[in-house]
Amino acid sequence: MIGQTVSHYRIESKLGAGGMGVVYKAIDLRLGRTVALKFLPPDVTRAAEAKQRFIREAQSASSLDHPNICTIYEFDETADGQLFFAMAYYEGDTLRRRLERGELTMDEAVEVAIQVCRGLGKAHQKGIIHRDIKPANLMFSSDGVVKIVDFGLAKLGGDRTLTREGSTVGSPPYMSPEQVAGRPLDHRTDIWSLGVVLYESLTGRLPFYGESDRVIFHAILEQQAPPAHRALDRIIERCLAKESTAVTGTRPNWRRISGWPRPAFRTPCNRGPCRDCRRSRRSVPSPSFRSRT
User: Is 10 exposed, middle or buried (0-12, 13-18, 19+ CB in 10 A)?
Assistant: First the structure.
């Protein structure tokens, strides 16, 4: 498709491909700006469920307006029925590419987690679950802002039409116990995945790994993650608790997810540990503090 013009976009180069789409760099001929176009892969165009999920991605992602979420410009279909949408193009690397050069410092890892929490908070407010938070889906803009991309696995809260009971959709090393077991999901599955990302960012390795998905799933369900960083182990332990009954609320906020805010970090409260920070495990904020039972 390189060199072709689709609608009012001229495709310049291929950026990458994943399970739910192929992404190209393109020029918006009307506005003269660079964009990223994501197309449903041709080999799954005939799959009605994949096509429906792609449409859901465009609809859910386009409803989100937040500095830490990738901006969606337009959703359209080619003359031959291929679905695509245009989204903001960012010059920076993904967190995955950044980690290939080495783990992050503690301050860097915390800053990434704070920004991801803010973006997820906006999505969760609207009942949208990402369900595939991982380094490859976190991108740095040229000015260092973290952008959550690829809501291809996003699930509107209460919508059970796209994920059948017992299915496991996601990236195995980052999947929550609920995903592995095929149980109903809510926003807390994203907090687990963020905990895995934070662990990997600090150590350069995954907390749960194996030679096959089966081994990884067993580790997620039965094993505890080894220590990662003395100052942040308490935070990670909360995110990676096997049972989510203590996961609370609907909006990620670093004060409650971590218990770690320090004046040196750019946190929502910019204060030392407070009463809210002492809440237990996978603790995520909400106007009312509720437990999942």
Answer: middle
Q: Tell me the CA end-to-end span of the chain in Å, nearest whole number.
A: 50
Q: CA 137, 285, 110, 119: dihedral to nearest 10 degrees? A: 30
In sequence order, which residues have a C-beta less than 8 Å from that of residue 215 and are 6 or more positions away?
A: none
| Beta-carbon count within 10 A of 57 CB | 23
H/E/C letters for each residue in 90-129? CCCCEHHHHHCCCCCCHHHHHHHHHHHHHHHHHHHHCCEE
Q: How far apart are CA 236 and CA 58, in angstroms?
A: 32
Each residue's pLDDT tens digit, 215-245 = 999 999 999 999 999 999 998 999 998 876 5
Burial 213-238 (b: 16+ CB within 10 A, else e): eeebbebbeeeebeebbeebeebbbb
Which residue in 99, 100, 97, 118 sits closest to 108, CA to CA? Answer: 99
| 132 among known catalytic residues | yes
Under 8 Å between Cβ of 21 and 58? no
Catalytic residue among 28, 132, 186, 190: 132
Q: What is the DSSP letter of 82?
A: -
- Could you read off the pLDDT of 161-181 as tens digits, one per residue? 444 444 445 689 999 999 999
